[in-house]
Q: What sequence folds into this?
């Protein structure tokens, strides 16, 4: 199993330990160290981190519920393989969620948060045409910040549950429009809307960038 042994044994207890194992496995799936179709064995993970199998099983159940692992009882547990429909659904989802979050965030954000959004969008614009995976991570970071600034607990809880699976299937995805110059202009317009606290325009631009399939 391509997981690195920790410098120190995991020291958390109970649900916190299961959370730690979840984070370790989720990160390995998202960055590709655990490849699609690869088997995941709870006993090996427990031995690697010097813990019991119980928190590992809890983490596996959580990853299964998010669609990152496929479990066949008494047969195998393996990393799922995303398909084009998964990506299309994630694009629809993030476009709708981020649009609503932007509308609320621009109404409720502090001045300092508005400045942070603009700086994040500057980094997104600078990354256009560079490395797709890096660009996607920067874009998801913007949407995460907007969701937190929405001050809407339901949106924030939804983000927490969907962040890992969405990040995985959108890795390397490029938003509309396809032309890099037009895409940069789209994000410059979004930045202007953010500075102006124009939630209607920001929501419309984000939805344009994530067209419904």
A:
């Amino acid at each position: 199993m391509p997981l690195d042994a920790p410098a120190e044994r995991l020291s958390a207890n109970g649900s916190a330990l299961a959370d730690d194992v979840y984070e370790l496995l989720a990160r390995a799936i998202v960055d590709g160290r655990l490849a699609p179709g690869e088997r995941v064995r709870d006993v090996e993970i427990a031995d690697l981190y010097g813990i019991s199998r119980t928190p590992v099983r809890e983490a596996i159940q959580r990853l299964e519920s998010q669609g990152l692992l496929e479990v066949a009882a008494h047969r195998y547990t393996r990393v799922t393989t995303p398909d084009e429909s998964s990506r299309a659904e994630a694009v629809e989802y993030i476009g709708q969620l981020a649009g609503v979050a932007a509308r609320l965030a621009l109404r409720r954000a502090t001045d300092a948060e508005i400045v942070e959004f603009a700086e994040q969008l500057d980094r997104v614009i600078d990354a256009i045409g560079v490395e797709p995976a890096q660009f996607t991570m920067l874009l998801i970071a913007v949407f995460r910040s907007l969701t937190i600034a929405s001050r809407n607990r339901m949106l924030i809880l939804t983000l927490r549950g969907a962040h890992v699976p969405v990040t995985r299937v959108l890795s390397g995805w490029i938003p509309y429009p396809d032309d890099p110059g037009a895409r940069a202009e789209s994000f410059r317009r979004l930045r202007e809307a953010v500075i102006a606290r124009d939630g209607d325009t920001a929501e419309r631009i984000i939805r344009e960038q994530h067209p419904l399939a």
